[in-house]
Write a structure and sequence with these properties.
alpha/beta, Rossmann fold, 3 domains, 3-stranded parallel β-sheet, 15 helices, 7 strands, about 10% strand
């Protein structure tokens, strides 16, 4: 747990925010009380950016909310979809076109994740093409099953564990010894559960290199909260160094706060959208850059598919001047 943190959920919904101290108290005394249905708004206020360092404990509290007899609209349907389709998303068809250059039998798997294949296929496709350009050998599953994170964030731990075991069996059967993920949620789940079986979990950013040709432009990077807040502590410096060495001018004059994406837009959409709009206002505050540097392009990138979607949708609503780009595109 962190003593000093900035929570975007507290920023937009302070009345329902649960502090770390309260989380600690609720965990330690969970046998002495029962959650009521109205506690939903407090417990599901969290979008799990993990800046507070208590995401795991908050999952436990959500699970208790359900086992105490409370409900979430649509959860039974989601669990039914998991049992039938191995995903909470019925229409989970991969919209990413797989080129013939992708290996059929590699022991390294490029895993896109549900959200990428359905909502942001252009993001996943760009990463796939970049890895191929770097001669990285990998295979892709004909049909991916959900990593489990979306259902974990509801508190339905049994369904989450089912998906974790399902993917582990699938990877073992295919002889996978390395998984490259393009989604922070998938990375977190696989790294937590599969490393003990000798499966190496990599995030695609490990394979990025500075561009061989000199680039130019102002660049704003929306960092992936769960990764920079604990899973890959040095990822911010790693990413920023790559783009600086490629020639881009990085903009770091605003705080790198959560965009509101990820789990937030699956449950408390009001929280997620309020945070997203605040972040877009932050970006709009930098729009005057073009007035001082009229011949320089302003780009925005991210290495999270959920953040990519948030910027795409809410950036358009707020008409931010930064042009959203696939981060690999700027290195080719």
């Amino acid at each position: 747990m962190k003593e000093d943190y900035k929570c975007p959920c507290q920023e937009v919904d302070p009345d329902n925010f649960i502090t770390n101290e309260e989380v600690r108290h609720l965990i330690e005394n969970r046998d002495n009380y029962k959650f009521q249905q109205q506690d939903y708004f407090r417990l599901y206020n969290c979008i799990h950016c993990n800046d507070c360092g208590t995401s795991e404990e908050r999952f436990i509290l959500k699970h208790k909310f359900l086992t105490d007899g409370n409900s979430i609209d649509g959860l039974d349907v989601n669990i039914g979809n998991i049992e039938r389709y191995k995903t909470p998303f019925i229409r989970n068809k991969n919209r990413i076109k797989i080129p013939n250059a992708v290996s059929k039998e590699s022991n390294t798997l490029l895993y896109f994740g549900c959200f990428t294949t359905v909502k942001t296929p252009e993001y996943g496709s760009s990463i796939m093409k970049y890895l191929l350009s770097k001669k990285i050998d990998f295979c892709i599953l004909e049909k991916e099953d959900c990593c489990g994170y979306p259902i974990l964030c509801t508190g339905a731990l049994e369904s989450y564990n089912y998906l974790v075991e399902n993917n582990l069996e699938k990877f073992k059967a295919k002889g996978i010894d390395t998984v490259i993920t393009v989604c922070p949620s998938c990375f977190m789940v696989f790294n937590k559960h599969y490393s003990q079986y000798g499966i190496k979990i990599r995030y695609f950013t490990e394979y990025l290199e500075p561009s061989k040709s000199k680039k130019s432009g102002n660049l704003l990077i929306q960092h992936a909260c769960p990764l920079k807040n604990g899973e890959i502590p040095f990822i911010v410096d790693h990413i920023e160094k790559i783009y600086r060495n490629s020639g881009y001018t990085l903009i770091d004059s605003i705080p790198q706060d959560c965009c509101g994406g990820g789990v937030g837009h699956q449950l408390r959409t009001d929280i997620s959208e309020a945070i997203a709009l605040k972040r877009m206002e932050d970006f709009k505050g930098l729009s005057n850059l073009s007035k001082f540097l009229p011949d320089v392009l302003n780009y925005i990138i991210t290495y999270c598919p959920d953040a990519y979607w948030i910027i795409k949708v809410f950036g358009r609503k707020k008409k931010i001047e930064f042009k959203l780009k696939n981060m690999c595109e700027l290195l080719i």
